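Homework-ish question, so no full write-ups if that breaks the rules, but can someone show me the predicted structure for this set?
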Amino acid sequence: MERIPILRMGGFLLVTIQVDMHDRLVTTLQDELTTMIAQTGAHGVLIDISSLDMVDSFIGRMIGDIAGMSRVLDAETVVVGMRPAVAITLVELGLSLAGVRTALDVEKGMGLLRAATRRRLAEADDGGVER
Amino acid sequence: MSDNGKGLSEVLSKHEADLQADWIKEQTAGSARRTGAIKEVELRDQCKEFLGLVIEALQGGGDLDVRGPRWNPVRDLLANLSRSRGLQGFTPSETASFVFSLKKPLFARIRRDLSKDGEAMAEATLAATVLLDGLGLYTTEVHQKAREEIIARQQQEMLELSTPVVTLWEGILALPMIGTLDSARTQVVMESLLQKIVDTASSIAIIDITGVPTVDTLTAQHLLKTVTAARLMGAECIISGIRPQIAQTIVHLGVDLGDVTTKASLADALAVALERTGRAVRRVRAGS
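A: Not a homework solution, just the prediction itself:
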C-alpha cells in the first residue's frame, strides 16, 4: 500500500507529500502521524506540500484537521511550500486554514518551529519548571 | 415593394456617373467631412463601388431588406468603410453621413425623372429612403461595434498594465493597486502576486491601495481573499495606503479586516516589513 513517510528530525517530524493525495492516503497519514507524535513526543510537525498541485475540499479540511490534532498532542504544525494554484483553490473553497502556521519553504518552516521551541523553553524557564 | 425597387433602380443606373459626382461634391462640401483624413481618390473609389453594388443588388429583384443575403456585398463594403473610419477617429454621424449624403442628389434625380408620374415618384422616394436609412443605420451599428472592440481591447491592456508586483527589498514585495477592484482584476492580481511570492521567496507582501478610488464590501472581500491566499503560502500581507475616507467606509460597512496589518502609508508599511525581517533603517549623516 502507498504510504507517506514520516521522518524524524530531532524534536520535529517531517512529512513530505510527493504523491497525489487521495482520501484513503490522508486518513492513513492522520493515523500514523498522531501515533508518531504520541510515541516520540515531538513538539513540531512540518508538512511540505510543495509537490502537491491539486487539492479538494476534503484534502484541504484534512490538512486543517491534522494541524488541530497535532496541537492537541502539544505539537506545533507548519505547512510549507503551498503552490499559488492550491492557495487560490483553498481560498475559493472557503478554507482559510485558520490556526495552521505556514511558511514559504522547509528552511523557513524549520526556523518557525525552532523559534516556537525556544519560546516554549523560555516560558518553561520562567515558570520554574525543570526540563 | 418590387416596383419601388424597380423605379429606384432605373434612376440609379441611368444617372450613375453624375450621381456619383454630385454625391462626392456633397460629401466634400459637408462640414462633417474631415479634410485630409480620407483621400479624394479613395473616396471616389468607395462611392463608385458602393453605387455599383447597390445597383447590382437592386437589379436582382428589388428586395429592399438590407439584411437579406442579396445585400451581403454592400454590407461588407459598408462594414469595412465604417470600421476603417471608426479607427481614424470619425464620429458615428460623420461615418453615417457617407450613406445619408447620397439622399440629396438621389432625390433630385428622382424628382426630375419621375415628375410626370406622382405615384411612381412617391414610391421611388420611399424606396430610396427605406434603403438608405437601412444602410445608414447599419453603418452606425458597425461603427459602434468597432468602437466597442477597441474599448474591450483597451480594458484588457489596462488589466495587464495595472498589476505590477515590485520588489521593495529582498523578501519584501509591493503591489500598488490602481483603479477599481473587480473580480476579474482581483484574480489577475492574486495570481501574479502569489507567483511572484514563489519566484522571489518573499515572506512579506505589501498591498498598497492608494490608487483604489472606493472600497465596498466586495472589494474588501477580494482583498481579504488575496491576503488569505498569501498567508496560506507562508507570506504575510500588509495593507497600506488606506485613505481617511476609506477607513471610515470600511468601519461603516462593518467589514472585518481581521488580524491583517493595516498602515496609512506605504512608508509605514515598509518600515514594519523591514522590522519583521530583522532589518532597520538608520540615518548615517545629516541629510541636506
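Now go work out the reasoning yourself. Hint: Chain B has a mean pLDDT of 84.
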